[in-house]
Amino acid sequence: MSFGKLLLCLFFQSAFALKYNMTPGVTPMSHQIYDLHMIIFYICVFIGVSVFCVMMYTLIYHRRSVGAKAAQFHDNLWVEVLWTIIPFLILVVMAIPTTIVMMRLNDARDADVNIKVIGMQWKWRYEYLDHNIAFDSNLAPSIARAMNGQLTEAEKQDPNVLLQVDEPVVVPIHKKIRFLVTSTDVIHAWFVPELGINRDCNPGFISETWAYIEKPGIYRGQCSQLCGSGHAFMPIVVIAVTQEEYDAWVKDKQAGNADGVNQTIKKISMSPDQNTQTKQADPAKAQEQTGEAPTKEALMEQGAVVYEKQCAVCHQLSGQGQGIFPSLIGSKVATGPVQPHIYQLLFGKNAMPAFKNILSYEEIAAVITYVRNMWGNDDQQKYGPDAGGVYTAKDVEAIYLKSKSNQDKGG
Amino acid sequence: MSDEPEKGLLRWVTTTNHKDIGTLYLVFSLAMFFLSGAMALLIRTELYRPNLMFLSPLFYNQLVTSHGLIMIFGAIMPALAGFANWQIPLMIGAADMAFPRLNNWSFWLLPFAILLLVSPYFIGGPAPDMGWTFYAPLSTTYGPPGTDAMIFAIHMLGISSILASINIIATILNLRAPGMTLWDMPIFVWSWLITAFLILAIMPVLAGTVTMMLTDRHFGTSFFNAAGGGSPLLFEHLFWFFGHPEVYVLALPVFGIISEIIPTFSRKPLFGAMSMIYAILAIAIMSFVVWVHHMFTTGVYLSTQLFFMYTTMIVAVPTGVKVFNWIATMYKGAITLEPPMMFAVGFVFLFTLGGLTGVMLAIVPADYQYHATYFVVGHFHYVIVSGLYFGLVAGAYYWVPKWTGKMYNFTLASWHFWLSLISSNITFWPMLLVGLAGMPRRIPDYNLQFTDFNQLATFGAFAFGLSQILFVIAMRQCIKGHQKAGQTIWDGAKGLEWRLPTPLPYHTFSEPPKVEGKTYI
Ligand SMILES: [Cu+2]
Q1: N or C: which end of chain A has fewer CB within 10 A?
Q2: pTM, whole model, 2 decimals?
Q3: Do A160 and B445 touch (CB under 8 A)?
């Protein structure tokens, strides 16, 4: 923006403020929040303007330079009582409608649709409790590239580049939707201004909030509680559709019909869609169907996709890691025996999340193969005989079953 | 006790003189103000346009954290302690603070604490990166190694402010000139007395909290870890039980400074002096029962939200009383606008703006939309920068000429005022608005629609930062300049400190003065 335009912007801040006011949103509650916001705003403007008027008046007329002589009063009981009581009364008047709205806002009973929202570093997981549907929702342009300032020029042109996800939450309009929010690691917050929802996701706790959406549309938001390096890159996209469209979406989703899901979303998205990227085709799966073991190339290819999406946020695309996230280059785990490596991916360790519910065995095998053969990790002279190797879903499954049976015995 | 200060650097290390220690505090605080201000400018530069430019998100988060912690513990609190050290003995007619050696120690803990706090930048292992509120588990299970340095730095800072507070309380209660009752004390002294008790009440809570973090991190406890039966919400409660009164620890002494300056330049006694003292007391007591207003979106019970909303609204009343009293003091006065008064009036104006946005934040449903957005960032920067910082600058322009016997250039100081006033508004007003539009705080990169106002804020921030160089020049004039300040510096100024010769001798009130009634009327 040019400097001239900036100056203009400054002088017409109030005009610009219209664009920058709170959204009235699309739910009855968000409308009421907006109304409260405007009422308290005008009250504050009124108080502020009155105070500043008196102040300007004294500054102009009670100056020594205009010949003012100082009075010597320093008390006035009535005035003091008045300006204690009047603000108090204003606040009482304000508190009444606020209390009523709060009681409504906190009443999540009798919901028609129940969705569990799980924040994790740095994506959202949605579980539809009524339909047995669950999926992850990531920043659509790769989060690893966004975090490194490596978005492409085309991506930067997109006005919503940081508010796009690969898989949006789809909800019906004119239904009470209850969101149960929680987290698996640090505190996040699920913030969608147009739904009037901003709720912390506390690990180990579930809190509930709700929305009744009046209008079909795409509503965007993002995490609002500092949750680490990827905090700016965990957007939320809620798509509200009619009941029929929602039912169709649910059906496709349950049947695992990705094309159908994309079709539904495409059809209902108002704006021709940059919204949903078609999910990557799965090279290993194709091979599995033909019955052969996947080749190393196919695994590496699929592994790269999984790695960029799931691992690079922490370990970086370059594998070098950052902060508390260790480098995978020459890492003992990634070059040593494969069993602990697989185990760590399945079950997590400290700040490293468990992937057993997030990735399939094929995907885990692919990313294991990828990490073990990238960045010179397969150099057996340097790291010993365990380095490198090609692993398949069977290896992963074996370790999973073994640890399960160990647990059963131990438990 | 010699009459003249020692020569050389050792003077500053070994000094037990309240004036020397006050100077140390003030100089240190100014240095920290510029250090942490430079961090703010790095942050604003990164936010100049969307897409990451030159900071990694990790480094950005570290800067956000250090900026907040250093501003609060390194810049503002030491500045307040500096004024306390210089002014309290002068205003109550005492020769020095009650515990001069302790006083030296409270100061010298500070630089090392801050050094420890920033050490992770130099010795590797990321510095704390979870914001100045360092919520668990981001600061425990997920905290970088530098977090431990922060924990011990906070312990040292806590000890430093507890010792300083004990000293201030002892001085005020025991060393007042004969004839001066508690009710006769100037408002600045009153405000520090109450602040010191606040510090004694909250610093141990913070120390306990960071110790619990430490044991969670290294000794296998689970205070804040839900998986082990603890609760991240417990952390938030403990933190804000400290954090909210802390806001008033920063604000109350500045209220005191303003209550000294406005009567002087209005040539009229402070309006409602008694109600001022009661208001400070009321604010201090209420500040212990409002902390959950930082946590309305955590999912606490409706009844809890209601209780804390009502208490928060009630705090606005005594705060309003203070503002009204200041304006009533000016009303029908004979006002002159020398630089201290300019900044004091600027304080009243901008602090009121900050306070009114605070009233908006108290409305819980609206807070759901404001919470953790730039609206909050704008709100507390209005209060702290355009409010408290202005108040501190006003205090410096008011008292420093008396201390040193040299006057700064009024034109320069007026430029400082107008540039600061305009640039701070260009910086923080846009923040309020992008916040309303839904931009979350603490993000290194934002979506396109927020670009124009972020650019504006960045311009403002640089203008504000650069304007503060004028302040340094003015203060240098007070120390090394040529323009002598006369015996009567401000014709409306009353109170014990103004009866002393200019510049102040190294030792004052070795003989306690005789005092009857209020000295400041
Ligand atoms: Cu998050």
Answers
A1: C
A2: 0.85
A3: no
